[in-house]
Amino acid sequence: MKPQKTIYLIDGTAYIYRAYHAIRNLSNSKGFPTNAIFGFTKMILKLMDTHHPEHAAMFFDVKGPTFRHEIYPAYKANRPPMPDDLSAQIPCIK
Asked: How many angstroms separate the CA atoms of 82 and 13, rounded?
């Protein structure tokens, strides 16, 4: 039987939030927060090392309303705003 090829589709935003909340109070020597960056990188490396997908693609939430808000206006209505120290790390991750 021929080995099956795999593609992993990764919800990058979910991984970022998970990493941010898993590791607290981590920053570099200049005081820049790095907990989400560190945790995200470790999780992705472990995923790739463990499963060895042939291909992988990562996607992130977009800023602003989407079609989901048109379908359901209360979509994510109760979600608190993103913490500033997390927001600062996202460009480094992307």
From this structure: 11
d(CA 34, CA 89): 7
What's the CATH code of the domain at 43? Answer: 3.40.50.1010
How far is it, in rounded angstroms, from Cα 34 to Cα 39? 8
Predicted confidence at residue 32, as pLDDT, reads 98
12-45 exposure pattern, b = at least 16 Cβ within 10 A, e = fewer: bbebbbebbeebeeeeeeeeebbbbbbbbeebbe
Assess whether pLDDT exceeds 90 at residue 75: no
The answer to whether residue 35 is domain-embedded is yes
The closest alpha carbon to 19, from 3, 2, 35, belongs to 35
